[in-house]
């Protein structure tokens, strides 16, 4: 049996896809998560063969969840299943460690095929995603570290430039304090700085603040 963890904040999506997958002779959905934080916890607890990961979820998005899972469990095989094909979602998701990228418009049987293929070590990408990757390879890349930040991380960095504490950021964005701390840690790592002050200086130096 190929064990699967399905993370998606839409309950009806989880119910529908999980029901189809569980009906397969070789696939078993052993856990479901409704947000990124829960996905990280369940992934490290159950160590499923495959993780189906939505991108846009409350508390913590799928990109951050993917990064945290892979950092602690490099062998994890994560399939992104999302409605988004924009660059700020595709590249960070793959760079975070996802090995396959599917759209929610895919039929359930196509997702099942992607699970089997990914389990065997293949990488399944939507044709549009493959095209984007090829175009990115042809385009000269800049060396700005801030381009690695997700939209949420950039939002938190700008709040940091306003002098807001983690608790104040948590209250303003309506996300858990521990999630803010994870984002801040990732921001410091991506910008290659050691503390919040250096991160704020970096933001002003690179004209990230209006």
From TrEMBL:
GO MF annotation list: DNA binding
In terms of Pfam families, this protein maps to: GerE (PF00196), Response_reg (PF00072)
Q: Which PROSITE patterns match?
A: HTH_LUXR_1, HTH_LUXR_2, RESPONSE_REGULATORY
Quick check: keyword Transcription in the entry? yes
Instruction: Indicate the principal place this protein occupies in or around the cell.
Output: cytoplasm
Residues bearing 4-aspartylphosphate are 54
Q: Coiled-coil ranges per the record?
A: none
Q: List, for all copies, the residue spans of the domain called HTH luxR-type.
A: 142-207
Superkingdom, according to UniProt? Bacteria
SUPFAM superfamilies this protein is in?
Answer: C-terminal effector domain of the bipartite response regulators, CheY-like
Q: What is this protein called?
A: Two-component response regulator
What species does this protein belong to?
A: Halobacillus halophilus (strain ATCC 35676 / DSM 2266 / JCM 20832 / KCTC 3685 / LMG 17431 / NBRC 102448 / NCIMB 2269)
